Amino acid sequence: MMDVTCPKGLNPELEEAYRQAAEKSVLAALNPKVFFGYFSVTADGVGHGNDTTFPGLDWGQSADALLWLGRTAEVLASWDYVKGMQRDDGLLPFAIIPRLAGKTAAMAENCTLTADARGAVYAHWVPCNPLRTLANVTALQLADAIYRHTGDGQWLARQAVMLARTAGWLIGQVTAEGLVHGAGFYVERPTRVEYDGVNQCCTAQALRLAAKLFRLLGNTEEARRCAATEERIVACFRRRFWAGDHCVEYIHPERGAISSHGLTDVDWAAVAVGMLAPDREAILWPALRQDPGFLYGGMPSGIATRPESYEDWEFTFNDRMDLAAMGRVWYLECQARARMGDRQGLMDSVRRVCRVGRESGYNWRERYNAQGGFGAQWYCEYPANLIRVVHRFL
User: Fold this and answer.
1) Residues 27, 300: Cα–Cα separation, whole Å
2) pTM of the complete model
């Protein structure tokens, strides 16, 4: 049994879920047999590979949870591993798959995935290359989390060049108007071609965090560049991503603004990171905080309140895997509720995740829909985010 110290003041249900999430998922995913600091996206190392790292989001979520659990040394080792895969232009891989090193693999009809000689993958196999900005955003968020946990200025100074490259590549994806290039930010199917609203929000937040880190480093020019780009993204979002009483989900290059799927995760993201003007936030929040459509089979949080309304043309690959409740959306919901002071709504949502975990032996699945969980078993996203939510928002 692993030694897990739960935060004080948790009720018995939440304390047990926290302990189980830590022991059975996040800590169980550590595997020093691969290398010291390695952790998989599933606790059993079966789903999505037992030596694969996903710097696009999954890595950052688990790493943040591990920091809260006192496993800083492993997180720093994993950081160095991912850092070593950064291209000269600043792009980080969304996946590192050693078994595919130097190979091109067929993923589906007319869809391939290519890894470099080290196994680093920089372009997604789904058409339109979703997730292209995700790793760089995640790295900036994790750098902030590491520094907040350690307060280690020497560590931060050693990351200065890497962080400048990471932020620089990301800034290069922002148009003069303030739109962030990239298909689905953390969803592959639907792909959300071309300007995904969650991407606008999370990129703005990542650059805000980067500006703070560069100020600490004394790099005023990089800080100014990140802050100015963030301001441009926010201003553009307020012009282009408002649909009267909710946010535009994405802006398609040919079909324009898409906002026909009810409330979406873009609404959660916009509130979570403060993208909207106060008057518009006041219009959105009362509806957003109480809409039951985000519960998919009772599980928070789905990507849209009208999932049945997605059309075939919105899927560049023929499956609907991400039309689901996912831990990444749930985290944005919790972040939004915390920012808005909705303690009751936050606790209700946390209890739902705890209950679903308890009913399945604390084996959270990768995705959930009206029929229940599907995708990889022992997936670490919900448990990692449960730990993060407890510490950051409760």
Assistant:
1) 23
2) 0.97
